Each structure stands twice: as C-alpha cells, then as structure tokens.
Amino acid sequence: MTAPAEQPSTRAQRLFVLLGIVVLAFNLRPAAVSVGPVLDEIRTGLGMSATTAGMLTTLPVLAFAGFGALAPWLARTVGLHRITLLALTAVVLGLSGRAATGSVPLFLVLSLLALAGMATANVLLPTLVKLHFPTRIGLLTSVYTTALAIGLTLASVLTVPAAESFGSWRWGIGIWATTALVAALPWLGLIRHDTTPAGAPHDVTLGAVARTKLGWAMAIFFGLQSLQAYSVFGWFAQIYRDAGFDPATAGLLLGVITAMSIPLSFVLPTVTVRLTDPRWLLAVLSLLLPVGYLGLMVAPVGGGWVWAAVVGAALSIFPVALTLIGLRTRTSAGTAALSGFTQSVGYLIAAVGPFGMGILYDRTGGWTVPLSTLSVLAVGQLVASQFVARPRYLEDELPSPVAHRTA
Q1: Can you name the residues that pair with 4 across neighbouring β-strands?
Q2: Is the pTM for the entire model greater than 0.90?
Q3: Which of 88, 100, 209, 336 is the one with CA 20 to 30 A from 178?
Q4: Using 50, 70 and 90 to split pLDDT, how confident is the model at 14?
Q5: Residue by residue, what is the 3-state secondary structure of the chain?
Q6: Are 68 and 123 in contact (CB under 8 A)?
Q7: Which residues contact 375 (CB under 8 A, 6 or more apart)?
Q8: pLDDT confidence of 1, banded at 50, 70, 90?
Q9: Would the pLDDT of 216 be above 90?
Q10: Is the pLDDT of residue 163 over 50?
C-alpha cells in the first residue's frame, strides 16, 4: 500500500480525516439506488428497452466485482488518498453527466463511470480506517456504515420527491452529484498524505489472498450476505404487492427493511470488536433470515411489518462483515487486498441472487420457492460466518515471502 507521507497527528487533523471518511461513505450508494425509484420515467424519457433497463439494474453488482478487484492495485500505484479523490470525481462526473444526456449508450457508460468510482471507494474504506484509526476499527466502521446506510435510505426516499419538485427525473438522479462534489472537498486536503507509490515490498496481491482459506471464507461469507441483500432490495417490493399491499405501502415496508440498518450499523461493528467470540452474533443475524422469510410465506399481510423488521435486522450483518475485514488483517496493505478480494468475488456471488429470484419466480409462478431457496442459502452464510469469526490473520496464511514483506 502507498505509504502516507505523514499521518495526521493533531486532533483537528484526525477529525478532518474522519469527516472525509463519513462524507465519502454517505455517497457510496446513491449512484446505485437512485435509478430504481424513477426507472419507468428514465425508460420513457430515453426510449430505453426492458432489456437495457435490466442491464442498467445489474451494473452496480458488476461494478462492485470488477472495479473492486482493481482498487488495491490502484491504491498502490496512484496513492490511497489520491485514488479516493479520483473515485469521488468519477462519481460526480458520472452522476451529473447521465442526468443530462439523451443517449441510452452514453447513459449506460456514465452510469458505469459513477458506479466504478463508488465501487473503488467502497473497497478502500476499510483500508482508510485501518490506516488512520487502527485502534478504533469498530467505532469507525460503525460511523461510516451508518453514514452509508443513511445515504442509501435518503437516496431511496428522496429521489422521487426531488424529481417531482423540479419537474423531471433528471433532477431526481442528478441532485446526488452535488452531495458527491461536497464529499470530494475534504479529500483535496488529504491527498498530500500520499508519497511516491511504495514498491513491491509492501504489496499484497489478490492472487496471494486467493491462496488463503481466510480469503475464500471471507469472500463466500460476504457474497452470500450480499446475495441476500440484493435479492431483498430487488424483489421484496414486488413480493409485498403480490401479497396484496398497495404500491405505497409496499415501498414503506421496503423502507422499514433498509431503515433498520441505520441504528444497527452504528451498534454492531463496535459490539463485534468487543466480543471475544463473535460467532454467536453472526449466527443470530444469519438465522433471522429464514425466520423472516418463513413468516412472510405464512403470514405476509398480518405480520408484514414484523417480518420486514426481522429481515432488516438480519441484513445488518453487512457492517459486521466490513468490520471483520479490518480485524482479520495486521496491516493496511493486507486490509486493502482482503477487502478487494472479498468484495470482488463476493459481489460476483451476489449477482446470482436477484437474477435467480426472477428465474425461480418465472418457473414456479410464486414466491415460496424463491424464499425457501434464500433460506437454504442463509445456512451457507451461517457456516461461512463461523469460520471468519474465529481469531486469525490474513498475513499468517500468506506465502512466506509475502508475509515477511508485510510484517
């Protein structure tokens, strides 16, 4: 990992770094979730086909997988703080550009640019925390995942009102470029902490991580929990409507699921760090998934609000997964590599979820089989979580020369 020229040492400097991390996290979901609420309007305005719209909704997961894998190399080559600023710049240009274009291909390209920046910064966040706050991983992960959850919820809730207030879907999706631009400002002052890129002695490659049991366990765990989340975000509004809820109520129920992550994102990472053995916490969160799914199958209307809260609590395992990335490494270089490998492979696994849910629904004509399948996959998540919860470090499993260089 690129070595910092000087670590911020004063309280004011550390608060400035904290501000940069918080505003960065806030802007890592609007690029992905602001399209969904106004997708029909986008399709009508641009003359976009259903197939192209499907491609658009798949881009976030593909961007996470592809550009997430490049993030550690970019950080080593360009500098951790510089590439973070460039990632936010890509978000600003992509979001503002796609809101203005009338071309479908250009809309897709600019969406990919914004998502590439989002995916890159998403992988770098655990590394930034490890580098600047190595003894406060739980607290800082709580802070930034809460900011991320707030950004996710606000982008879901406010995109349509913004579009209606300004009279166009373009404003609804373009307004988030403004928040990303504001988020880039602190990083203009942080790029001076990067020196000339460090050499190979500090490198931990994705290939090296791929030769460790911990790397694959983390990727599988992260992938399965992301598969659950994207399946829920992609299909639960439709499940609620098919159960008899009106569109507005279905949206509110989905809002309950996403809103549950705000308070829990602040609490769970700190709890995870303090626990000597967090396996029971991961087990409880994993097992809440089949409880919520079963309840939805048995009593979708009578218990709809309860099951939404249960599923929302279960999906709050996401900040715990991010916390474990920092806890299972000894160095910022190891954190960057483990984060890149975990998220790139994990999001490839996650891409199967929404797509598979659609196939199972088409084949069976109902939601029982898709929800039962998600329940079975929750058991796989449980097994993987128990492996990564055990105290162990990536550097201890790396090939000897790499482990020695990063020690």
Answers
A1: 194
A2: no
A3: 336
A4: confident
A5: CCCECCCCCCHHHHHHHHHHHHHHHHCCCHHHHCCHHHHHHHHHHHCCCHHHHHHHHHHHHHHHHHHHHHHHHHHHHHCHHHHHHHHHHHHHHHHHHHHHCCCHHHHHHHHHHHHHHHHHHHHHHHHHHHHHCCCCHHHHHHHHHHHHHHHHHHHHHHHHHHHHHHCCHHHHHHHHHHHHHHHHHHHHHHHHHECCCCCHHHCCCHHHHCCCHHHHHHHHHHHHHHHHHHHHHHHHHHHHHHHCCCHHHHHHHHHHHHHCHHHHHHHHHHHHHHCCCCHHHHHHHHHHHHHHHHHHHHCCCCCHHHHHHHHHHHHCHHHHHHHHHHHCCCCHHHHHHHHHHHHHHHHHHHCHHHHHHHHHHHHHCCCHHHHHHHHHHHHHHHHHHHHHCCCCCHHHHCCHHHHHHHC
A6: yes
A7: 289, 290, 293, 294
A8: very low
A9: yes
A10: yes
Token pair for 114: 């914004």
